[in-house]
Amino acid sequence: MSQTRSVEQLKERANQKVKQGVYTDALQLYTRALDSATGETSRELQRQILSNRAQTYLSWGDIYTALADTERALSAEYTQADSDKDLTAKYRFRRAKLLNIFCRYEEARAELEELRKIRDEQGQAVDDVVRELLQDVEKALRAPAGSRARQKADLLRAVDVSY
């Protein structure tokens, strides 16, 4: 069996664990798949595994590691000019959502702008979920200085260890 096939099988087993809600097993399988990847394993497959693992971390409640995996999937190491644009848009949305959770609103807005550019290149409009997130981000950015919302955001950014 080829190494790529073995990585794909680990990914599929992990996907099944996610569907069953067994996140710790899924995370271990995704990690094994990434650790098993070799030079013959495509970057796109590795990027998909990173993204799946990020979503699993998010579902499990570990937003810090979810953000780290999402950023790695979007890095130049894994995202190339010929990478699947739909997947890149999905990863950018996830990153924007996580940045919003961390109250890193400027970065979230920039990420949503990159997502919009991808959709424009594809001749597609952004969907309602993206528009809603952008509205939330814009609302947070307009919060008056000294308001409870601004104080909360400042506090969350102050304790954010992912910076």
UniProtKB/TrEMBL annotation:
This is Uncharacterized protein. The keyword Coiled coil applies. It comes from Hericium alpestre. It comes from the Eukaryota. Keywords: Coiled coil. SMART domains: TPR. The keyword Coiled coil applies. SUPFAM superfamilies: TPR-like. Residues 98-125 form a coiled coil.
